[in-house]
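Hi support team,

I submitted a single chain yesterday and got back a structure, but I'm not sure I'm reading the token output correctly. Could someone confirm the output below corresponds to the sequence I sent? I've pasted both exactly as they appear in my results page.

Thanks,
R.
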Amino acid sequence: MTAGVRPTFPWPAVAPLVGVLLLALTWGRGLGAALVLLVAVALAGAVLAAVHHAEVIAHKVGEPFGSLVLAVAVTIIEVALIVTLMLSGGDKTATLARDTVFAAVMITMNGIVGISLIAAGRMVGVPRFNAEGAGSAVACVISIATLSLVLPNFTTASEGPQFSGPQLAFAAIASLALWGMYVLTQTVRHRDFFLPVTDDGDGVLDEDEHADPPTGREAVLSLGLLLLALVAVVGLAKVESPAIEAGVAAAGFPPSFVGVVIALLVLLPETLASVRAARRNLMQTSLNLAYGSAMASIGLTVPAIAVVSIFLDGPLILGLGSTQMILLLLTTVVSMLTIIPGRATRLEGFVHLTLFAAFVFLSINP
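Hi R., thanks for writing in. Yes, this is the structure output for that exact sequence:
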């Protein structure tokens, strides 16, 4: 996305390959302290490589397609991980999809947005973005989150906070339809709503016009390496999960907090890419990454688990708890107030980070 995103081999190419190789060697095996450290280093390298290659692709295809590539790629691999765990985990995974999706919503809409607003505010004072694009994204995220994660608490067809079969099918179709319409709007119908704007809020900012875009061969190579890097990120996060579980237990945190930690690791590529965009005064790109990731996480995960539920013997609990619903409500109100003016300050960023901190704290101390 800038003149400096052209591949600089060898590390952006080597890191994903090393990560996937290490994943193959360590998957399903117990790790000693040395291997845990090695996997952590490889995980960090894969995250940085994923961000690098995502920026190369974004420079080639332009916004908002570049943001969409990273968000969808991460989510597809994340969904595959969730489905694998659900099929092998039995009743212990009854709330896995709910907890993962909710964590993704809180991380993206509060954590990533908050950090990006603060980073952009430090550079330009009052970053500007397109309120129409950001507003439509928030509307879609909140609608799908409410339909999928709040309504199960109030339906009566099934006992407990879960959908009946037809209700789950409806939620899956609605989620997929809303996500598809969002992508169509973002990339075709109203693409200008999702492009970075100039400092005066009038017109589109094209910060790539001075830089030669990567060649088609470089873009295809980066796409392949991006997918490898994301496989390594998600897989190595799963490999590290026993060590994470041990650390969480040693700290006295509830077992559910492990899912939050893994979600944070999986979403690191979007977080770093979003902050880097914000530091270049591309706040709209940061919002595209954050809201696009939240949208894809729900829009793709709910249909996937609806299919997987056919093969599950145990319950599938989707309904949020009362504390989680309050956090979702607060996130909705604060997000709308943040994006309506089309500009924001570091104060709004701190508000979002406060909500994110509340989510993390309440996950530790429910």
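A quick pointer for reading it: The longest helix spans residues 216-251. Let us know if anything else looks off.

Best,
Support desk
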